[in-house]
Amino acid sequence: MLREFAAVSGPYCYRCAHDCTDGCANCGQEYAAEVERAISLSGGKTCAVILEPVSGATLGAVVPPPGYLRKVSEICKRHDILLIADEVMSGMGRTGKNFAVEHWGVTPDVMVTAKGLSSGYSPLGAVIMSRKIVEAISSGTGAFIHGFTYSSHPISLAAGRAVLRYILEHRLVEAADSDRPGSMASQLREKLAFIRELPSVGDVRGIGLLWAVEFVADRATKAPYPAPMNFCGKVAEAAQQRGLLVYPVQGCVDGNSGDHILIAPPAVISEEQVSWALEQLAAAIVEASFGA
User: What is the pTM of this model?
Assistant: First the structure.
């Protein structure tokens, strides 16, 4: 429904196109420079930059390099264009903050969120706008035609209110903070360490309770498995047979090849469940590797 628009490379440190010998600090600036070049090439016709602060399913829980989001925010402000953050998957506490952008001290003009807003009990999404956007509308026509058939659906809104209340009362955002000692997220991060040692695992990345495991046919060259093999699907099937559900995705390397699974447990998960889940996942990866 949108016109054709420019796209830029997303930061992807495991397969970085830039020099990552400095802990990815430099590549963050290089990727941000791509945004500025795209804006310049548009001839003043860019109205917004849309990004995922932490990538969702498509690329698999990639955390941006240091300084990247802050630099993109500065670029948007300098060119007087909007920064829109897609927090559909990363928002509502999933990464250990209410919204992922908070990890990097960035305030977008618009945020979209869903998923965790009602925890899937009923479909619910939200658009959150800065005062700047609200005032632009109210000082103009004052009209914002955005109604949909199920807007303000009472059951979805009731589910959302109940979920937000539960998150607050049970401090689930803190449970999802992987930097908080003893939290479920920190335990998940620590226990993922042995998954990294499996021969078919190239990368384990993520933050909070949003992680991904990327598989490779060769760890030295980072060569992916052939797409027709559907290696991530084999892992997911083997995991399901053990009672564990994971999210298999292909295409992280070039849109076609590249296998990973997404790991996104609920914040109410227990330490015992984390240990059990990762044991089943390791066994599933080993099983899939033997058949590869």
Answer: 0.92
